[in-house]
Amino acid sequence: MSDGDIALIRNIGIMAHIDAGKTTTTERILYYTGKSHKIGEVHDGAATMDWMVQEQERGITITSAATTCHWGKNNINIIDTPGHVDFTIEVERALRVLDGAVGVFCAVSGVEPQSETVWMQADRYNVPRIAFVNKMDRIGADFQNVVTEIREKLGKKAAALQIPIGAEDEFEGIIDLIKQKAIYWKGDDLGASFDEVEIPADLQEDAAVYREDLIEALCDFDDDLAEAYLGGEEVSQEKIHEIIRKAVINDGFIPVLCGSAFKNKGVQPLLDAVVAYLPSPIDRGEIKGHSAKNTEKEDLRKPDPDDLFSGLAFKIATDPFVGSITYVRIYSGTLKSGATILNPLKNKKERVTKILQMHANKRTELPEAKAGDIVALSGLKDTTTGETLCDNHKPIVYDLMEFPETVISVAIEPKTTADEKKLMETLDQLKKEDPSFSYQHNKETGQLLIFGMGELHLEIIADRLQREFKVGVRVGKPQVSYRESITGEAIAENSFRKEQGEKFQFGHAKIKVEPVDFQSGVDFHTALSKRDLPQEFIDSIKRSINNTSMGGALAGYPFINIKATLLEAQFNEMESNDVAYAIAASNAFREACQKAKVQMMEPIMALEVVTPTEYTGDIISDINMKRGKVTNMSAKQNKEVVN
Fold first, then answer.
1. What's residue 49's pLDDT?
2. Cα–Cα distance for residue pair 61/80, rounded to 1 Å
3. Is the pLDDT of residue 40 over 70?
4. Which of 262, 275, 402, 616 has the smallest number of Cβ neighbours within 10 A?
C-alpha cells in the first residue's frame, strides 16, 4: 500500500444523541455503497449494525460496531456508536482511534444533551467533524435553528453547505450551495438515484444568501479567498472544496449538511463530504507516543506501511466462533497473520492467530493489515482496552484512554451453586470487554455487587449473563454508587515488622493525605528519591494505597479527591520487603484518612428535561421532591426546557 492508497482511507465514526438517526444513516451508507443489498431498519430489529439481541429488541445501539465500505476510490472504515448516556464509553474508545466523525443531529430536537457530551469527547481527541441534520421530514423540523445551536451550544464555526427544499412532509430534496444545484431523489429505487437540476426560482434568493454566508465563513480560514471575495471575484468550486477541507482538518470548521436518512434523501452527498473534507491517516500526520523505556522521551510513528508496526487496542469483544477478539487501529507498519508482537505496557509478547475485517458481527479473514486499517485480532491473551501493541525491536507506548467512574450498583447472585464459578469467570470476561463495568464483593454484607453507568447498562449486563452466557442469576434493586472523601489534612505513620523463619520482614511508611479537586481516586506523590527508598518499594506503596482506597472508612465506598504523599519510609537493606511496605502503607493511609474526617459523596448529574408547557409545574415539583435543583429554564419550539 502506497501513501496514495493510505490517502484514500477514511476512518470515521457516526455519533449523536439517542434517536437522532445514527444507525439509520449508517444503514443507508451501507446500502448505497453496495456493502448491503437491502436496507435494514432499526424499528424492525433488522439493522445490520445493531446485531445484538438486546439492540434489536430495544431499537437502540448498545455497543459500537465496525464495518468497511467503498465510495468511489475511497475505503471508508465506519464505527457506529451508541447514543445512550449509559454507553458513553463506546464513543470514547471509538473516537480515540478515529480520524474523523459525522455528528448526526435531529432537525426537530437540535443539539441535545448527549450531542454535547460526544462533541466534547471528540474535542478531547481533536477529531475533525462534519454535521448532518437528519429527519428533515419530521414535524417541527427547523434546519436553520439546528445550525444556530451548533454554533452557540458547541462553540464551533459552522456553516451550511446545503439547505433543504421544503420541510416536514413537504421535504423534497436539498440545494447544494457550492454546485448551486437542486437535488431531488427518486422514490422508486430507495433513493439510490437522484436528479441535479437548476435551483427553483422561488428558492434562488435564499440559496444566494446562504452561499454568501458560507463564503464569508470560509474567508476566516483563507486570506486569498477573503481578498477575492472582497474584490468581487468568482471563486471556483475546486477552491471552495480545498478551503473547506483545510478548515475542517486544521481549524475545527463544521460543514453542515441535511437530509432524511429514513426517507432515503441526502446520504450520497454526505458520503461525498466524508471523502472530500474528513482527513486520511496521512492528513493526521505522525502519531505521538513515548519510549517504552523512558516515559519522558517522545517517540513518533509515521502512517506508513514500511515503518515499524504499532497500533492501539480500543475494544475487546467475544465472538461465538473465534473467541476473544481485540479491535486494533493500526497506526504504522504492516501486521501479518501469525506474527508475534509486543504489549510494551505489560512487557508481554502476543501472537496474532488471525486478522479479521469486521462487518458488524460478521468477519472476513485477512492475510495482513497495514497502516490506516481498523481490524480485529484473535489470539491475544494479555492485552486490554487502551493498550499499545507494537514491534518488538523499538517499543512505543501511546497515551492511555480515560474511563468514567461508575455511578450505580446492584447486588447479584447465582441461582444455583453450580453457576457460581461460571458467573465469576463471565464477570471477568465482561469487565475485560467493558472498562466502564466492574464488580466486587462487599466485605461487610458478603454480597457480590456489579457497578455500571446506569440502570440500562446493568440491565443489559444481567440480560447477557442469562441469555448469552447461560448463567442463571438473581438481581437486586439498583443502588447509588457513593464515594468517600476527606475534609481536612492529616498525617499518620505505621511500621510493620514480622518474623518469618530466621528472617524478618520490615516496612515503614509515613503518609500525608489532603483533599484536592481531582475527581478520580487518589493522586499519589512521593517526597522521597530512589536514594532514600528503592523504586520497587515506592511502587509497592503506591499500589497498596490505590488498592486500599477502593474501600472507604465509612461504608466501604471508594475514596476520591485525595492527594496522598509519602513523606518518610525507613529502609533496612537486610529486612525491607515489598509486602511489608504495602501493609504499612495501607495502615498509615487508612489511619490518616480517619484523622482527616471522612465524608460521604453523592453523585451529581446535570439533567435537561424537555416538556410540554402544561406539565412544567409538575416536572419542577418532582425535581424538587428528589432533591434536585433547577438552574434555569428556557423555551424551545413551544416546549419548556428545564435544566
1. 67
2. 8
3. no
4. 402
Looking at per-residue pLDDT, the higher value among 396 and 117 belongs to: 396
For the chain, the average pLDDT equals 88
Quick one: 43 and 16 in the same domain?
yes
Indicate if the pLDDT at residue 207 is higher than 80.
yes
Please tell me the predicted confidence (pLDDT) of residue 330: 96
H or E segment and range at residue 234: none
- The C-alpha cell 443539539 sits at 111
Q: How far is CA 384 from CA 104, 149, 314, 430, 435, in A?
A: 30, 38, 8, 12, 9
- Give CA–CA dist 378/554, Å, rounded: 44
Q: Indicate whether 403 belongs to any domain.
A: no
pLDDT at residue 42, as a whole number: 60
- Which DSSP category does 627 fall into? T
Task: Write down which residue in 378, 397, 416 finishes a domain.
Answer: 397
**Is 402 within a domain?**
no
The residue from 397, 426, 460 where one domain ends is: 397
**In the prediction, which pLDDT does 424 show?**
93
264 & 295 share domain: no
Predicted pLDDT at 2: 46
- Same structural domain, 513 and 570: yes
**Is the Cβ–Cβ distance between 78 and 26 less than 8 Å?**
yes
Which residue range forms the structural domain that includes residue 635?
609-642
Bridging pattern class, strands 9-16 and 396-397: unpaired
Number of domains in the chain: 5
CA distance 545 to 381: 28
For residue 271, the SS3 value is helix
How far apart are alpha carbons 510 and 310 in whole angstroms?
42
CATH at 551: 3.30.230.10
Residue 200 lies in a domain: yes
pLDDT at residue 291, as a whole number: 86
CATH value at residue 22: 3.40.50.300
Are residues 446 and 594 located together in one domain of the fold?
no
Pair (423, 358) in one structural domain: no
Same-domain check for residues 16 and 163 = yes
Q: Are residues 210 and 108 in the same domain?
A: yes
Say what the pLDDT of residue 370 is.
94
Check residue 280 and report its DSSP letter.
P
CB atoms within 10 A of CB 507: 29
Residue 112 Cα to chain centre, angstroms: 17
- Same domain for 30 and 132, yes or no, is yes
Contact between 304 and 321 (Cβ < 8 Å): no
> What is the number of alpha carbons within 13 Å of residue 264 lying toward its C-beta?
17
**Phi, psi values for residue 117, rounded to 5°:** -60, -50
Does the pLDDT at position 88 exceed 60?
A: yes
- C-beta separation of 282 from 3 below 8 A: yes
Cite the DSSP H helix spans in 565-611.
578-595
Per-residue CA distances from 195 to 27, 161, 266, 355 (Å)? 22, 18, 12, 42
